[in-house]
Design a protein that fits this description.
The complex is a heterodimer of chains A (286) and B (200).
Chain A (H helix, E strand, L loop, with lengths): L9 E12 L2 E13 L4 E5 L6 H9 L6 E6 L2 E2 L7 E4 L11 H5 L9 H14 L15 H14 L4 E5 L7 H18 L2 E6 L2 H7 L2 E5 L6 E6 L14 H23 L24
Parallel strand pairs in A: 3-8, 3-9, 6-7, 7-8
Antiparallel strand pairs in A: 1-2, 1-4, 4-5, 9-10
Helix pairs in contact in A: 3-4, 6-7
Chain B lengths: L1 H29 L1 H15 L6 H9 L3 H25 L3 H9 L4 H38 L5 H10 L3 H34 L5
Helix pairs in contact in B: 1-2, 1-4, 1-6, 1-7, 2-4, 3-4, 4-6, 5-6, 6-7, 6-8, 7-8
Classes of the chains: A alpha/beta (286), B mainly alpha (200).
């Protein structure tokens, strides 16, 4: 295998994805091309159903593009593998294993037990869960489960970390804390991270580049570079504001499109017509 | 002495059902073609009280141990297959996807992820299979006279010895209870403790 340091970690080339459903074929992704450099933190943002998770799954190798190809370090991605680990929204911790067994899961068979335990313990301390080695997943809160999922993924030291709305199910405070932790961890591990979210603020806080997706079929509508120097002050609400505004207006257009499709053509994000002042004649004189 | 023989029979027969049943359940969950053919057959056969296999068993194996073993196996086998297949189908797909992105696949995937994830269901099937097997063993021993608890029951009747009949009945019930409590309830509790199911 080639070992030169590529300038491009992930290359997405003219990728299209079509799904066959009971109602015919659905075009989920329409000719997306993208290049991601090593160590970049990229966020995919878009309305529901825009294909951002589908694209993530294809980069992970869990699904294959209908057309086009995706390469990691110039090698075609044909299946899932431990150099591109996914962290899912539901954490997906294995309930029959305790915390430390979950974290070392990917390492079993690759190294002896002592070394595994060491690595797992170090990672658990990194995510501030050192005391919970022997706990079982059902005993953990949502935020704790997310942390264990992160530790489990990091144990494999993947060159690409894929995160699919990992904090969506958490409360705002926990999420903000985890943003700080992710930033800290990433400053040392410097992996390439591809992060899917529909929380614009989250994307702006974390990413080097934010890619806004159109509604289905998904294309990249706009790429916004977040030029804030690192380490970023995540407590300060001022610097993200202009970025958030730009991205949200891009998104608004797309969300309206989705809602029109799902609800009815007269839906807009403006004040609803029916909230008129009371006492208005609504057609009683028919 | 009769107790040991009966217990020995059921353990042998039960282990055979596990060794045959779990792999078959696994194969059915994996291969659509087996699901479309074998699965419905099994669902149908499960309804048949396993003692009905005895005449067939006697014709095939003759009047000996093998015939009774066959009946025991038939008792447990179907429940185990169905529970294994169902358990595997009901695994949240995300566990498998998570494992795959960590580089686990093939046989290792089955051993480390799919079987453990299906275990609670499989244990339920094992418990059910056990009680079917025990019942069919007793029925078999009653009909087919050979040493064992069933025979003791029968001789009690022939000798008009109610005390013996009742004593053996109690014995049969106690053994059933012991296995149920000691083994299956324990297994289930341990799994539930890990998984957090039924945490009040």
């Amino acid at each position: 295998m080639e070992n030169h340091k590529s300038e491009i970690r992930v290359s997405i080339e003219n990728v299209t994805k079509q799904f066959q459903t009971a109602h015919g074929s659905v075009l989920a992704i329409d000719e997306i091309s993208l290049q991601i450099k090593p160590g970049e933190f990229i966020c995919f943002v878009g309305p529901s159903g825009c294909g951002k998770t589908t694209l993530l799954n294809m980069i992970a190798g869990l699904e294959q593009p209908t057309k086009g190809q995706i390469k990691q370090d110039d090698q075609l991605i044909t299946g899932p593998g431990s150099s591109r680990v996914v962290i899912f929204q539901e954490a997906a911790l294995f309930p029959w294993l305790n915390v430390i067994q979950n974290v070392e899961f990917g390492l079993v068979g690759r190294m002896d037990a002592k070394k595994r335990k060491e690595i797992a313990k170090t990672l658990l301390h990194l995510v501030h869960l050192g005391k919970f080695e022997k706990a079982y997943p059902h005993q953990l809160s949502g935020g704790m489960k997310s942390r264990v999922a992160i530790a489990r993924a990091l144990a494999l030291n993947p060159s690409i970390l894929l995160m699919d709305e990992p904090f969506a199910a958490l409360d705002a405070q926990t999420r903000d804390l985890l943003h700080e932790e992710i930033q800290e961890i990433w400053s040392t591990t410097k992996q390439t991270i591809i992060f899917v979210t529909h929380n614009v603020r989250e994307a702006v806080r974390l990413a080097d580049r934010v890619l806004v997706f159109t509604s289905r079929p998904g294309k990249i509508k706009r790429e916004i570079r977040i030029d804030q120097a690192r380490p970023r002050d995540l407590v300060d609400p001022a610097w993200p504001a202009p970025y958030i505004q730009i991205i949200q207006s891009e998104l608004r257009e797309e969300i309206e499109k989705v809602l029109k499709e799902e609800v009815d053509n007269e839906w807009t994000l403006k004040k609803a017509d029916l909230l008129r002042p009371a006492g208005l004649d609504l057609g009683s004189g028919i | 002495m009769g107790v040991m023989i009966s217990v020995q029979r059921i353990i042998i027969g039960y282990v055979i059902s596990l060794l045959l049943g779990i792999p078959l359940g696994l194969l059915i969950s994996r291969f659509k073609i087996l699901d479309e053919t074998v699965a419905s057959l099994i669902a149908g056969l499960q309804v048949l009280p396993s003692i009905c296999w005895l005449p067939l068993a006697i014709l095939w194996f003759g009047l000996n141990e093998k015939a009774i073993q066959f009946v025991v196996v038939m008792g447990a086998f179907f429940s185990i297959v169905i529970a294994t297949d169902g358990g595997i189908r009901n695994i949240p797909p995300i566990y498998v996807r998570a494992a795959k992105t960590m580089g686990v696949r093939g046989f290792e995937l089955y051993r480390r992820v799919i079987l453990p994830a299906a275990l609670p269901s499989i244990i339920t099937g094992m418990k059910l299979g056990w009680s079917f097997a025990w019942r069919s063993l007793m029925a078999g021993e009653l009909l087919f006279v050979s040493v064992g608890l069933g025979q003791l029951l029968q001789t009690g009747r022939e000798l008009h010895d109610i005390a013996q009949v009742v004593a053996v009945m109690i014995m049969i019930a106690i053994i059933g209870l012991i296995f149920d409590r000691l083994i299956f309830t324990e297994l289930r509790k341990r799994v539930q403790l890990k998984w957090g199911i039924n945490s009040n």
